[in-house]
Structure formats: structure tokens, C-alpha cells
Fold each of these.
Amino acid sequence: MKLKLTTIILFINLIVFAQDWQPAGDKIKTRWAEKVTPENVWKEYPRPQMVRPEWKSLNGLWEYAVTLNNAVKPEAWEKNILVPFALETPLSGVGKRIEPNEVIWYKKSFELAPKANERQLLNFEGVDYKCMIWVNGALAGSHIGGNLPFSLDVTDLVKSGENEVKLRVIDGTDDFDLYQLRGKQKRDNGGIWYTPSSGIWAPVWIESVPETYIKSIKLLADMHGGLKAEACIGGLKLNTQLKVTVLGEGKVVAQKTGTANQVLLSVKNAKLWSPKSPYLYDVKIELLAENGDVLDNVSSYTGFRTVGKECDANGNWQFTINGEKIFHLGPLDQGWWPESFLLPPTDEAIVWEMDFLKKAGFNMIRKHKKAEIRRYYYHADRIGFVIWQDQTSGGSGGSEWPKWKRPHMESPDYVGEKPNQWHKGDALDADWPDWAHDLYKNELKTMIDVLYNHPSVVVWTTFNERWGQHRSLEVGNWVKAYDPSRLLNIASGGNFFEVGDIADQHQYPHPDFPLDVPLYDDYVKVVGEYGGHGWAVQDHIWDKTKRNWGYGGLPKTKEEYIERYVESCRILGELRKKGISAGVYTQTTDVEGEINGLITYDREVMKISPEKLYEIHKKAGLLE
């Protein structure tokens, strides 16, 4: 009776809170934002690469408070923040900025009926930036890093019936000397910088697992049908084995049992994954006891593909997938939304945007200075994109950006007759303290681990331009050793070091590359950013009081805008003939004051239709 009464009270509170909640502000929104409610917000399973049936979403209405950073606890709580949207976002219902000396507190009650011999894992897909977590008044753990998921074992803290989770979150964003990895966030947003996204910004959920359970899996499938599966085991340390079953269209095509350290399988005549044919196999992974009993099982999937490079007859290195040359054409994708910033408003919104890009003929997406939630990469896997994944950038306040320098003819580092040519050993790296570098490396490793199983991810980009670029050779050599299955772009448009696989030039507004620089002869040559042609669509501008801009100045007519895009594609097509292997157009959508998207920020207006884009790309010789 007590449990039923508690449930009724929680239900009544939910109704009351829901009546209080509404989106904040009056800025433009997408059509998906209009459908978001506290009851339906982000109900999809958050981790498609490792699925379990026993889980509970904790998204919805939470209580919150903003206090000075020296407060031990809030004096009062507000009751209307919609998780998982960051405090500053309209969909949070708050839309408030925090000051440098303030912190955010969160609190939520939830029902749980834990079973004996099970463990409870509390999962956060993203909390920006530094947080402490309590469950039922006891400290459950802490976490530093605002861009990636993490998990806490709260088995000993939860109980049957009503439970409470509480967070305290610090987000310094670009405060001086924090070296915080923050991507495009900046307190003084404007130009290429966007509004900060503080606190919980991605789904929160709790799952039940056995006493001995599969903590993580690592899958690597190649073009020859080989699959290597590894698992990390959590909970009680028992002698276990791993049984891996591969299924194609519901039928078992390979099965093998081995140690958790490594199971090697082979699928005969495997259907290969590529952007043209993104075929995925289901994978069932079972953790077995010594007597053969199943201790735990998870569902996953994989795509058989091999990422590589090949030198053509003219001596130019080209991208390959499954041994076939492929030209990478795609947008620079900021992944920001007017109502929800870092997090798409719904799962459906991700799919709509990818469908647009696919119809336009793009086969690649450069995910710029941010890691998406895991469902994003799941959709890229099944729809068929290759992803260039940037490490989220950061640095010491704003001090590094004004000192940014890509060596060129006017630079004191320039010593030759060609741009981007300089002495080895020139000081082109920033000087980061060890503790800041360790945080950078920890987030880089976590990103690679979290995204490792996704066949769509084919390139790691460790630095963008010179922002936060430090210890480049050390970082590059580490990434190549840690994940040799993918290619490395050491610094997209930044200071080039002879490590990795790619030489990357940024050029606005039209693409270009210094093809005659011998330094780049042993690398895949790409134009990692170009374009940025702006066009303002009235009634679809995020803030009319801001400087709304595009590269190369704004055209006077839409026809001129389209002509500029056509010209950039024509030039890129000529560069392809000369050995360039990829082009990244800036950008998918408008973002805040940037009006250089192919689509408006609210995703309502396609400035150029996907059919017209496909025609332009084909005529320029950019499609496979």
C-alpha cells in the first residue's frame, strides 16, 4: 500500500510540474521541438551498440537550483527543468546563463524495484563539465569531462521504492587557465562561437545488470569477413567465457566461444559495409559461467569494412574503403540546435537531417569539435555515412586563439618559396601543463573507446586549426598505436606535423590546396573546410541583433549564393583531378550568427534542395 501511495504522489507531482514547464525564450525552434513534452522526451534506448532489456529512462522533469560555488547545498529548489536539455537551452524551460562563480544543482526522485543478485548502473550520456553525484544522500561518485558518457555502480545505494539522485555541476566553459575541452562554446558567444551548454545535456538512465556482467565490448570487423570481439567484465570476478553469435537477416552465420579477452570469428562471403551499401550484421554476445550457464547477454551489431589509403598512378594518396578508392564529400557539421544546443531535440530530427545530406549526394560528415550522443552514430551506421570525428577542442581561456598561426608566406616561420613550408622543429605547438594534457588525453581515449565499434567512424581528428594544439607528435603517435584500424588527421587546417595519414588545408570561400609542397607528398590531401557561403532567410534568423555573416561577404541575391556554391564545387572537382581526396563544405545548417548553412538553423528552409545539390555535385565530378 505504501508503494502504491508513493507512486500516486509522484504521478500527481508529475502532472503539476508538467503544467509549470514550457520552453523558454522567443527564438526560432525546429518542428521537432514543438512536439517535445516531459512525458515523451528522449525515450529511445541510449546505447544501440550494447543493448539490454532492463533499463529505465530518468529523463523528464527534475528540480534544480543555481547557487554560488561555495554553497554546501541549495536553500531552495525550482521544479521545472526538463532533462536532458542544458540549463541555457529553451527546451530546458530555464534558458538561463550561469555566472563564473555559480554552480548548478539537480535533484530527481524515481521509483525502482531492484532484484536480488543484480547490480544497478546509473548512466549519464553527457554532463558539462565537472560533477558530483549523490544517491539517497550518499556520494556515488564524480566525473570530469563534459563531452562523453560515463557510468556509476549504485547498487549499494539504491533501495526498493522511491530513490533520489542529486548532482552538483561546475561549468567554467572558457574561463582562463581551465584548459576545458568545450568545442564551440564561449561565454562571449558571437562569430564562430556559440552559447554555452551547461550541466546535464544528454539522456540519463539506469539499468539492471547481473552480479557478473559485460561492462563494455570491442568489435572490429574487416573486409575479409574477420571479426575480433573483446569484452571487459564488471562485478564479481568469476571464471567466464564469451560466446559470440553473428546473425545476418536473422540467421546465424558465425558462432564461437572463447575467452573474454578475445574471440575470433570468420563470416564467409560477408556482405561489406560502405556508404553505398551500409549492411549491418546483428551480434549477440553472451557471458558464460564455467558450467555453461548464461550470466549476461547483450545485443549489438557490426559492419564488415576496412578503412585504408592507396597511392594512385599519379603518386597521390587516396582514401579507400574495402580496398576501393572513395572520394569523401561532406559537410562540416556543428551539431547545434536552436532549442537544445548540443543535443538534438528528438531522435527523429537526427534522421531527417541525415536523409537530407544523403539525398544531396554527401557520403561523409565531419563532426566538428563535438562528440554526439551514441544514437547519432547508430543512424550514421545504418544510413551510410563515413564520419570524420573531431576531438572536442579546448585551451586556456581565449589566449591561444589570437596567437593562432598557420605558417604562410607572411609568417616569420616561413622559410621557403611555397606556403605551408617551414623548418622542422619550429615551435608550432602550444605549451600545455601536464595536468591539462592528461585531461585532454583522457577524453581523447574515452572518445575512441566509446565510438570504436561504429563502422561509420573512419577518421580521428585530434586538433582543429591551432586551437588547443599541443604535443602534436606525442598525441598523433599515441592515436595511431591505440587505434590502427582508422586514419588520423593530426590537425585539420592547423599546424602540420609529420604524423598520421592526412594533410588538411582550410580555405575560404573557395577550396584550394598547396599541391606542390613536397612535405605533403606522403599524405592523403584534403580540403578540410571551404565554402561557408552565407544567405539570410528572413524570419528564420536566430538573433537579428547579432552580426549574421558568411565567408566572403554575403551575396546580393539567392542566385548569386547558388552560383558561389556551384563555383566552389567546380573548383573542388578540378582539385580532385589533381589528387585531392576529400572536400568538407561549411556547413550543414546555420548556427546562431553563422548563416552559412545549406539549411536554416530551425531546419525549416533548404536554401538549396537536396535534389539540386545532387545535380551540382554530379556535374562537378564529386560523386562516386
Amino acid sequence: MSDSALKAHLTHAHVAEQLGRMIRVRAFEQACVEAYTQEKIRGFLHLYDGEEAIAVGAIPVLEPRDRIVATYREHGHALVRGVPMNAIMAEMFGKQAGCSGGRGGSMHLFDRATNFYGGNAIVGGGLPVAVGLALADRMRGEDHVTACFFGEGAAAEGEFHESLNLAALWSLPVLFVCENNLYAMGTALARSEAETDIHRKAESYRIASEVVDGMDVVAVEVAARRAIAAIRETGKPFFLECRTYRFRAHSMFDAQLYRDKAEIEVWKAKDPITRFRDWALSANLIHAEDVARLESEAAAEVQAAVAFAEAAPLEPVEDLTTHVYARERPEPPPKIAPAAPPQLTTYREAARQGIRDALLRDERVFLMGEDVGAYGGCYAVSKGLLAEFGPDRIRDTPLSEAGFTGAGVGAAMAGMRPIVELMTVNFSLLALDQILNTAATIRHMSGDQFGCPLVIRMATGAGRQLAAQHSHSLEGWYAHIPGLRILAPATVEDVRGMLSTALREPDPVLIFEHIMLYNRTGPLSPDAGAVDIDKAAIRRPGKDVSLITYGGSLWKTLEAAEALAKDGIDAEVLDLRVLRPLDDATILASVAKTRRAVIVDEGWRSGSLAAEIGMRIAERAFYDLDAPLARVCSEEVPIPYAGHLEAAALPQVDKIVAAAKAALGRA
């Protein structure tokens, strides 16, 4: 054992407790191996054999109010934290009695009762979430620590660096615990990292760091006590690099051909369980009968857990679609006529008013993003709010979309109501991991234990000659993802009022604001209220053809409808407003009335949202149609810079008019 172990004051009871915890984890995982070979546990199975000293040394030092974010090798973390073994084993078996309701499996164990915020199957994906949990604590002045466990492979990920930078920049109470087992899957650390001392990376962000022997449970405990005490005293992050070794393969699918058997044997000689047991026996801190008792108790508990999991029922297939969204949502806002007369307002100012209203109404709300402070964001939507609300609630971020979006996810999970601004929709792709893999899935994976009431705003669309990388219309991509709500406000009333409603939602909401609308004006009462985010809106009634659209294309479509009217064609214009979930009832009712439909979508034609809407109409209203469905989409090219080419690539009034006339046989 290390010098720290020899110097530590270890009682018989504490030695037995720590040894028992490690034995218990090892026994649980051995049972999982047996169940896996019997095909009772499936999927990826990542085992913690050899690394038990880290979880056992660090986690009991935390207090119940503290939070834990784990990685995909998290069985040991969950067991040591106090998640019931029966619930963990049932989760491994995919049973309804599992700690995540059978929705998460081996890599996604969650338990709200113990503040266990789950494993994350994305390498490094939990780091920004941990930062967000700590940010919520910092903003509320709460004395919590968030411990985040991850492997050394995560140190190569951008989210690692973005998270460390944010934690240091904002002085957040995060304990980063790197379980350095020397191999990221099959790639040795020396082959993948220019700097193999991982803690040096933390030091580059001026985060206090320490290296500890991760095979020595007492050394880990001493270091964890020191680190957590420092975090509670200073409020600043701390980084522990625990050098360890996994005795088994990366996962049960891994043939483990990349490691020399002699190397494995060298490390097995450092087995944290036998090492601690033998030292404690020689120091007369524990006795052979104690060891036998601990092993017997662990074996009995594991046997009972396996029996429990095998007997537990599966979740009924009828419940398949539960936990995608919250079971309960706020009632739609009542339609209240404003008392104040309407004033001519820009879309930009209406969006700003919506943010300001939210900040005034709810102290949990804050805005976070690049240049949202003094600059007011890329399109100056938040200009002036920094002076009114201060830098804590109008929070400028580094250029780190994955990092601050993930921080928004974590803060939302902790009960805050973040508004994350992604400067433009193309930058959202840098945050797609956090949006798709965490925000959209956390409720489902956790069996409804954790939600993510996050609002993400972003500018979308083309028309300003910003060329291919700043002219995307990707709303249809995001509308493909279950667990998200997607809004596309096109009017000043909607861009203000939809935000108010979205911030009351228990699930993540993405709001797409078209860049060509920011300078557009419309009447808006200063006391206009919240807006329903479930229903499409008929912007122009008609009887001859349904023109279905959303966002920036609404105004082109209304212009096209007026042009059609001059030719005696009465077009109905339907503003979708809500792209997920789509308001099928309003769409189908419009088509049933007009018997023709043209869908106008600024997204590319292939795989477009227009294609989805058209297929829904074909599936459910085919016999209502008197003409083939039609759509007007962007051309299949990256949006060009030259103005005349950009215009030719996008849906325009003349194209909409032509499509409508063709549907009526008047082309």
C-alpha cells in the first residue's frame, strides 16, 4: 500500500467497509459476465474489474446532496453510490423493475433518489452535463459538488477541453475524476495522446490537479477527501487522475488482441482487492473470518439480485412510447386579448421582449451563448439585456457549442430554465451530440426520472448571401428526433409568445428564427401573452388549394396566395409553426377542404420535412385529394454566395404560384 495508507487512521470497521464494497462490485460484475454468456444481458457490457478502488475510494466521500455523472463503465459507481443492486441487475436484464425502467441498460443507469445522474455511452459526453449541474448550483448559491467520472480516452474529445475551460472560467464546483486505464478501447494512450499525463491538461486550464494510484483504495480516498474539501472551500474545480487498469476487455465484444498477456499479469499483481485485503490482514486491521464473511454476503446479495432480475416482468409493449415526452405538461396558455393597443415591432425586438419577459417572470431563467452580452448576439436580439440583468443571467460563453449546450442540459436537469443561443443553425451541428444523445433521450433513458426543460434558440435559413456554410435550413433534421419539440415562429407574436410557452415545457424545445425575419415588422401589443405551441395556424383561409409552409417561407407563400387570387384561385395558407410534433389534424382538415396541397419548405428536397408531410397526407388523406401532392423546396445544391444564384436555389413566389397552378391543372 502507499505511504498515505500507512499514515491514514484506518479503523477495523472502515477497512471492512471499503473491502466489502470492492468485493461487492467485483461479485456483481462476475454475475453479469455469466448472465451475458447466457444471453440474458445483451448489448455492450463494459466491466469495472481492476478499477474498483476508484469508485470505492472517492464516492463515499461525497455527501448525499452531491451529484454523480458517470461514464458507460458505471456499474461500480452506481453500486457504491447506493443504487440498490436489485434495481441495477434488473436494468441489466432490461426489466421494468430496473433503475432506469429497462430503458437504459448497462450503459445508462440512473437513480434520482441517490443523485446518480447516469452513465453516458458517448465518450466525454457527460462532462458538459456535469458542468451544467455545477453551474446551476453556483447560480443558486448551493453548496453541492458534482463528481464526473470518465476514462482517459475522453481527454482527446473536444467536450473534455470545453468542459474544463468552462468549469475553470466560471469557478464551478466539479470534481473531475479521470479513470486512466491506459487504453481507449484498443488504442494505447501513448499512441493517441501527445501528452500522456492527463492531469497536465487540467493544469493548462489552471485547475488544481493530482495524480493518484488508482489501484490503491486508501490513496484514492485520501486524495478525494483533499479534493472535495478544496472544492467546498474555494468553489473551484479539482481534477484527479487515477491511474488504473481494467483486467477485462473494453467490452464483452472485444477480443483484446492489443494487450500483451504479460502486461495484464503485471497489473493483476496490483489487484486493488487482493492488495488491500493482504495489507489489511498483515496490519491486523481485518481478519480472515471478516474477509470470508464479506465474500459470503456479497455472493448472497448477488445471487438474490439475479433471481430478482430473472423473475421481474418485462415492460409491456403497449408502453413503448412512454417517456419520450413528459407525462404531464402545462395547460396551453389561454388566449387573452391584450389590453394595450398594438405597436409596430420588429421580429428582432419581439424576440428580445420574449427573453426579457422570461427573465423578469422566472429567476431560474438565464440566457447563455456566444456574444449574447454586450454584442447582443449575432443578430443583436439580446442587446441591452446584459446591462439590465447582469453577467450571471446574460452569460457570454467561449466558442464551444458542445460545451455550453451540454452545460445548458445539465443546468436544466438541475431545475434551472436555460435559454441557449446557438449563433446560427450550422453551428448547432457542433452541439448535435448534446442535443441528440442527451437532451432528447435523457427522459427516456432514465425511465422518466430526469427531464431536460431546455430552450435552444438559433438563427436559420438563407437569403443574405452568407454562402454555403451559413445558409442552412436544418429544421427538418431536428424534427426527425423524438424527444424534442421544434418551433418555427414566423410572426412577431409567435417569436415572443412561443418562447414564453416553451420555457414552461418539461422537455427540450428548439426554436428556429429565420434570418430574413429579424428586420420584418408587425403589430404587437406590449402586453401580448404566451402562444400555444401545439397548433398550426391558418394565416389565410381558402378553398382551392392548401399551401403548407413555415418560418421564413410564410411571407413568400402569402404573397403567392395574393398573386393566385388575382387569377381567381383561392389559396389557403397554413403556417405549421410547430414542426415536431406536427399538427396533423389541422393539416388534414385543410387538405380535406381544398383537396389539393403544395408544401413549401426551404430545406433541400431529398429527405425534407416536406416529404414527411406529404407522406402523412398520402397515408391518411389520399382519397381526399383531387390532384397529386406537390412541394417547393430548395435546389439540391449548397447555397451559393452570388445573389442571383442564391435566389434561384431557394423557394420563391413564382415557384409557389407555378406549383399551385399545376395542382389545379392551370399550369
Amino acid sequence: MSYDLQDIAESEERVIRPKGQPSLVVVIIASDDTTRQSLSAELEGTSIEACFVPDPADAIDEIDALQPNFVIVDGACVGEDRELLASIFTAARSALRVLLLPIPSGTWVSIAHACDADAILPQPLQRAALRRLLGNHRPLLAARDEPLVLPALLDRSERMREVWRLVALASCSDASVVINGETGVGKELVARALHRFSPRRRGPFVAVNCAAIPEALLESELFGHEKGAFTGATSQRKGRFELADGGTLFLDEVGDLPLALQAKLLRVLQERRFERLGGTRTLSVDVRVLSATHRQLEDEVLRGRFRADLFYRIRVLSIRVAPLQLRREDILPLWDHFLQMGASREGRPAPRTSVTARRRLLRHRWPGNVRELQNAAQHALMLVGERSIQPADLPELQRESRETNGSGSLVGLTLKQLERNAILETYAAMGTVRATAEVLGVSERKLHYRLKQYRRERSTTARLQMATIGARSEESASEEGTEHRAQILLAEDDDELRWSLHDFLECSGYRVVAVRDGRALLEHLGAKVLFERQGAPPDAIITDVRMPFLSGLDLLQKVRERGWKTPVVLMSAFGDKELKQRATALGAVAFLDKPIDTDALLHVLRTASVG
């Protein structure tokens, strides 16, 4: 079905338009000229009135005054300020609330959920997706559905960010999607997220496990039956396709469908029509089909166990959810989330998990994936009461923890190599020196020393690799290797945070100079030897707001007075609305609250094209 915005406006005009007033009102919160021009072009020539608000801080007043039918927020405009976005969407409670996502950024999917967005649209904006969304606004504004358990905890690892990025791209489409992954990784959660942010959100989400239903009953389960169709069919029964009409049908373990039923399913997907078992009347349905399987369907096709034509019909897009042992960054955040959920149900605070227990969790292979982790958290909650969780409270992880990630993966590695791998992988998972040192059972001083040693070794290796090219001398190659790393000036008076961020950014590929106050920062900005480039500013500045001798806001103002367009990121443990507004007015690219989310910091730097 196609939609025309003029037709939508005219149909609304007959229903709700007061005399002399526009049929529909949309408040668009966007500071980017390209986004505004795109939306303006889409709404031009219709009876829809668009109110553009460049500053998100002014949006709530505009929404209260206009009471719009739609509110569209450019995610790049509000940054990752969940509180501000939630306030805007709360003010627009009676409107359809749309979030434009700055793709690629899988983190935004969980932000959209946390702020209860009605729909998400990836940028660059697709005209068809916007038209379909506005055309379906009435059913979207019906009674709200059950909240989806989609914690922001699930997007720490790069693999899960890619999953949520694909969810964002596919949610506004009706295309069929196959979700592949091992048992227990959360395939149904991904399917529910696809439904949650689609124009079918207010329609039903119907799930059926194709492997759990006997083959003799599966056809009736999917398509329904008429009275007397078989022995025991004492009344007419609707199938899952009928129940999912207007919404989403999720076929879990679709790879276990028998071949005979695959043929009938193919016909339904092609024609959107079918007959109940034992019936003659043809029924039409409007259903989006999502599928999931732990099998490799390409291999099943080659073996003749899955129809090739059905495979290409259901797999317009494929989303693979990695097993938990390949995304260890998610283990501890998920563990804490499950503990919090379980403790909340019992009306008590979540117990603390000891360092040795957390270390055991990171070492375990988790063959049962997220489902096993959730069961382990429930097991621990039953045992501990109010005390902290110890390794003995975990359900028999000792034997598995002695196994390696792959058969023979440790054979031939020296103790030095094992130590290096343990430090770098744990540091990547934990994000800070303090947390990494706590998990590994070493001092922060030793960890700092090792990280610096690894950086020196990496730098030496890079120079040797460039020297083998033979195109330049060793000196010029070394200079080139230095120049290609983005240069960051970091100012923070907290010694622990300063060196944690310094090491994190260095390990992320940046070249960092860290200072402890505003006076030292200004001296370094004026020192021509700092970045080895006469008069050139750093590629980015990261600074605390409250520092001795000079505040972060004063520094930002001085940087702008010099005419530098250097991206400046401000950090604060006391970030209030007024501070953030002043920082935005002075041109800060981001205002991050402490404790610093290192993933968010990297995202800000990459969005600002630093590195």
C-alpha cells in the first residue's frame, strides 16, 4: 500500500481540522540543515504544518504550545542525552514520536527504547519510510503495548552494536528477516525489537516455535482448521497467520520446518493468501514474517533439507547474533542487569558480586549463552540473601572455566603472550584501568606499566612494517606513522580518571597528551613542540568543566576566540541543564556525565571525524 502525505492531511482535515487550522502539525527538532531541507521537501505542498526547532532545549515549550500530531527528533541534535530525549517525548505523549538515527550507531536503538520512541528512522531519511509511518499514525497511537525488555546493557560489544544498527535499518521496512545464532543468544529479543520500532508496533506480535510442535499439528497451528477437518477438530480454530494479521509473525527455528509445509509457507509468503486446513474459503492476511534458526540455512539448502526458493523469500536481510563467548564485554553488564531484575521482583536490593566471582564469570565459556547467564544469576540470588556473591554461589562453572575458547588455542603460547592477551582483552571488556586491575588481581601501577609497554611495542612494530616498504627512509616513515594518529589534548584534575582515559584513548589508536589543570593546558596549547606542527591545534580537546585556574567553559571560549574549529568534549560530575546549554552555545560537540562511558566517548570522537 502506498501513501501520499497530501491524502493523509486531507483525510485528517475531514475529521479533526478546526476551521482555519492546518490538518496536521509536526514539530521537527533538528539543527542540521540537510535534515531540515529533506523534511521540508517531503512536506512541501501538503496541508501539514511543520515547526522546526533547532535547539532541543526549546522543544518542550513548542510542543506544549502547538500540541502536534507528530514529533520528529534528529538524534544527532540531542546527542546521547537520554534525559533530554525522554523529557521531549514525555511532553509529546499524545503525538507520534519519531527518532531519526545517525547510523551507524547501534547504541541508539536501546536509547530509543529507553525513551519510549514510537518509531525510529535511519538517516539519510527515506521518503517511503516516512510516508508509510505517517500513513499508519492512527493505529500507532492506539493503546500502548507491553514494554519490551531491551536493556541498554546489550550494546557494549561491537558485535551487538552491529546487530542493533541492522535492527534500526530494518525496522521501518516490511522485508523478511532471518535472525541466525546459537540457542540462547536472544534471537527472539531481536525479533521483538524489529517489531517494536516498526509501523506495525501496535499490531500483534505472534511467535511460534516450529521445532516444539509435532509435524502433524504444525500446519493447523500455522494456518488454522475448520470444524471436522480431522479427528478431534470439534470447532473452527484460527491459525497463527490469522492471529498475526496487521502485525508480525515470528517463526522460531524455521530450519526445522518439514519440506511439505515449506511449500505451503512459500505460497503464503508470495500471495499473502491461504486456506484453513479442511476449508475452501481463501483468507488474506497482512503479516510481516521474521524467522530465526540456529542452523546454517545455506548448508541446509545444499543438503536438500530446505527449499532454496523459500530461503531466498525469507532472507531479504540476515542478522547474526554472536554467541556470548565472542562478546565478553556484555557478560558483566548483563549479569548486573539480571541481578537487578531478579532482586527488584523480590523487593530487595541487588547483591554485590565479588571480584573473584566476576573473574570467574569472565572466564566461563557460556555454552548456553545469555539464557545460561540469566539462569546463573537467578541461581546466585536464591543462595546469597543479603551477602555478596562468591564463586561458590555460581552454578558449577569451575569445570567449564578451565576450558579454552577453542580446541588447542593456548598451545605454544608463552607466558608473556598469555599475560598480554589477558590484559588487553580484559581492558577492552572493562573499559577502565581500575576495573581491569580489580578483575585481574594486579595493581593499577603494574597495569599502567604493561599498557605503556604494549603501546611502545606496537609503535615499534608499526615503524618496522613501514620500513619494509622501502619507499621512504626510516625517519620519514616514523614521522608518517606519527602523523596518521589523531592528536588529543586531555585536561582532568582527577589523577586516576586522567590516566585511565589517557591509556584508553592511546590503546584506541589516538596520540594523547594529558594535563591536570587549566594553566598547564593553556601552556601546552601554546607550545609548538607539543604536536610537532607549528601553530597547529590538536585534533580534539577533552576537558573537565571544573578545573583549577581555568574552567572547561572558559577554555572552550578561548579555543573559539582563536578561531579553531577543534572539537571540544566537556566532562562533568555535576552536569546540569544550564551548564549543558552554555556548552552547546559555545560549540562543544558533547557534554558527558561522569563516570565516563568510554564507548560514548569513542562514538563522539568518531562522529566528529577525529581519527
Amino acid sequence: MPQSDLPVTPEELATLREKYRHERDRRIRPDGARQYRRAAGDFGYYAKDPYSERAERAPRQDRVDVLIIGAGFGGLLAGAFLRDAGSASIRLMDEAGDVGGTWYFNRYPGVRCDIESYLYMPLLEETGAMPSERYATGEEIRQHAVRIAKHYDLYRDTLFQTRATSLTWDEESNEWQVTTDRGDDFRARYVVTSSGTLSQPKLPGITGIETFQGHTFHTSRWDYGYTGGSPSDPLDNLADKRVAVVGTGATGLQVIPELAKSAKELIVLQRTPSTVDIRDNRPTDPEWVASLSPGWQQRRMDNFLHVLAGEPVDELLVTDGWTRTPALQRHILSGSVDDSVSEEEREVRDEFADAAAMNRIRARISEIVSDPITAEALKPWFRYMCKRPGFSDTYLQAFNRPNVTLVDTADFHGITAMTETAVVVGDDEYEVDCVIMATGFEAGVSGVISGTLPVIGRAGVPLLHAWGQGPRTLHGFYTHGFPNLFQLGAIQNANSVNFVHILQEQAQHVAAVISRAESVGALRVEPSAEAERQWIETVHATARDVSAFQAECTPGYYNAEGSQAITGFTFSPGPVVFHRMLREWRDGDMRDVLVRKEGDIRQRESSLIGAVSPLRISRRV
């Protein structure tokens, strides 16, 4: 049975606030996000693909209707819906050796999704699939990505192990000229980018990391040649090894229990503990599967999205840690709020609820972890959504093993240094044979945003120049001056924890717009400057200011390691409202983006935004 939250008194809440500030200050670093290095830029070894041998091929100099950059679920969904809409000439491109995106690279032992598989793995009914467990393994998810690619014939014209190096708009042909690091130079009428959500591994910039003579790798490039075993088999080669793991976020919660079973000695280096709530994984019930009727997955996905976005539902179809805490998620995730009370009253009420939930989570640690010093170090002292919530039925139990040692690095703001043979924290050296970096990915940094993929639009204007004062889009997808370019991701739209559902809605939208453009013979798809401006105003007018909340949070990627850098903005009324708006807009004539003749880009009113103003949106939610 789930534990009950443990309420606090006003006096206890005041004490808790001081505790949170103290623990935050222990971890704040002056270098902020600069403490990390990009694996590809600083340590190419950490970014090397260990799963596929490089396949040589001749450069392409041809043409496709649609180029999709990124073959994770976003790219696959875009390809699937475009295929359903009748597009025959589709090319997937990815730096990896196959489809899957994050799930291609994340093959570490213990890896699973933390959203129900029945929600997270898309197109289950369409491909005739059913996950074997409530939370599927990474390998099962990766194989489902392959299943989607095969089902929709997306392997037909792929370019794997290939990185796009430039996108340049050709005014005469109304096409994009694409170059890559493999010498390709081809044309594409439309380009869809779906990369950057979780793609580039990041590494802590530890002094002396280059001098370490033992073995080391990043969890997203797992070296089974060194550890032995497989994602589902014991890591036998570690039986005589002293292993250190850096990081206790979502990856650490999953990989540490597996390493604890196999390593002679496991040292867990923790700067900030995660919340660890009950996961409650279990095999898929055949009787439940037999009871399902057509359309069940979409209904379940929609129900979950409504609950997390604060929208009413007739029945709760998913009962888990996420649906237990929707109001607490509003400081990070978009959605409706309770307007029956003032904002001040709502903030106070939510803070008390937050404290009660965190008290329950901390109490669970004391109940499970036998050593009181270790249990205290594992307790998260921050508000619930300061870090992405974690779930595990095995992580806390791993610290009861005699071969597992927790090293709290908070007082030193992380690992102090590395030597040829050891990891140093303060004055203490820990001799190890292997260091595994469970330090995650750069979140939301695509080549387009970072500038490693230059995009040159109409009149030779670079996209990053056009975005000099911040991203400028209509609905988050397209930008004035950059025709036929669609971006999937989190910029200027709405978010949710089940990001695959968000990507599915985005992919459906892009496919519908391209299909409409082709059916009416449009020259190109490009938003007017006025529609773009009004959408930015709408996003800013509805955006919820969470800077005060993030300023009190322990450093992490949600608040740019304590810098409180909030960029891009999201549509705060939430994904349910946003997706409804998109559907209404698609039912119209799409005149905001369809250019039917030369000179058709003008300052024109937006049919969507004119009909649904910022003030009207606020009243609806």
C-alpha cells in the first residue's frame, strides 16, 4: 500500500525552508552549468558509438521530399504520420547507427522508462505490440523503435552515422540544401528536426580526469567488453573490481542496484540525492490486455495527460507516482491551476502539500536504509519538482549491501579531483579500477540551438541571428524567414512528463501541415511575421513565472545549475489546451503559414491567435 503523506505545521515548514536553503547553498557552484563538458567536444572517447561499426558509403547528391534529422521517437513519429499522409520520399538521418535516439545509446544495466510503458511506447496498437512489463526495459523500448521503423518502411532511405553540418535555403528551388560530415550534399523540400531532447552526454569537468589510468565510460556508452554481462545478465567481470559511479539522478537510480550486485566494491559519489518514490513494476496482466478495446492507448495517454495538466477526468486510468502529485508539478510542467483561491493562498497550500509529500519520501528512506548516517545522506532536502522525481523499488535497498559505500560530495561542491588511480573528495582518496559517469545528457540542446548545425534562411539570414533576442516561432514549430523548416521539441509550446506523447502530437501536426501544403500546391510553409509576433506575445502573456521557486531549488538542469536561467518559455495553460488549439487551427485554412504565391509573406492577422487571445486563453483555464 502507498504510504500517506506526512503533514507539517507552520513552525515545521519555516524550519524546513531554512533546511532547504542550507542544503542548496552547500551545492551551489560559481561555475554553474560550466562545470560540465560536452563529451563530443572535450572527450571524444566518451561520445564514441560502441554499438555499431562505422559503415563506409558514397556521399549522397540527390533529392528527397522530407528530411527528418533525428531518429528517436520524435523523428520516427514524424516519419510514421508523414507516411500515413502519403509521403513516399522520406529520409531519416541520425548520428547513431540505428533508430531509437536516447534508447539507442542508453543500454546500461537496469535502464527502463519511468512512465508507464503503455503510455510511453507510441503506436502500440498500430504496430500490434504490447509491452511485457508496466515499465519496459530499455532494450524492449529500443526494439519497439525498430518495429516502428520497419512497420512504416522508414529504413528505406536512411543515413545513419551521419551528422548534418549545414542547412541552407535555396530561394530559386524553394528547397533546403543539406550538407553532412559524410560529404553528402543533397536537397530536401521539407526539413523536420527532432534532435536534442536527450542526445549529447555531459561530463563533469573534474580536475585531473584526463590523468586517470583506470577504465572509465559514460552510462550512455556502456562498455560490456569491460564489465561483462548484458543489460539483463550479471556483470561478471566486475567481481574483482572497485567501481565508482558519479551521479545519482534518474540513471544512477537504475544502474547502481545492478552494479551493486556484481562489483567487488561500489562507491557511489553523490552531490545531490534524488527523490526515490515507489515504482511498483510488474508484468503485464494478460487478462487486462484481453479486456482492452480499440483506441485504448490513445484514451490512456489522454487521460494521463489530462490528470497531470490539472484537467478534469471522469476516471483515473493510471495510478502511479506522477498522478499522485500533479499540483506539485506545476512549478515545472505546464497546466491549469486552481483559480478558486488567490495565487498567494494557492502557493501556501501547495507548499504545505509539497512538504508533506517530501516528508513521506524522506521517511521511506529511514525505513529502508539500515545505516542511519547513510540514510540521512540519501534524504532529498528540496521542493518536490526541484529535480525530476525518481522511482525505484531497488535503489535504496542497494545501500544495505556491505560492498556499497555512499560518498556525499556536497560540502566540496562535487568531486575535488581525480588522480591516476583514485577519485578525490576533499582530503579523502578512493582508489578505484573503474569510474562510470552517470551524469546524463545536455537537456534540450540540439545542433540548431547550439549552433553546431548552422541554419541559413531566406536572404542569407542565420537562424541564430534571427533568434538574437530569443527564439521566435509560431506554435513552437516554424520561424518567419525559414520556410519548410519544422522543429520538434519543447520551445514555445506545452510540456508534460510523458514527452513522447508531446512529440506524437507535434508529429501529427507537422504531418498535417505538410500534407495540406502539398494538397493545395503551396510554394512553401512559412509563418508571417505578424503571426509569429502574436504567438510570442501569447506565450509571454500566459507564461507562469517560476523564477522564485527555482531560485530556492538545489542546483540541477531544471534551473541551469542554480543560475535560474529560464529560456524559450512554455505555454503555461498546458498541453491539453495547446493541443486543442492546434486542432482548431488545423481545421481552418492555415493561411498563417501557407505561401501560395510569391509575395504572399505579409503582415497578416493570425486566424488562431485572433480567435483565441491571451486573455481568452487565461479565462478558459
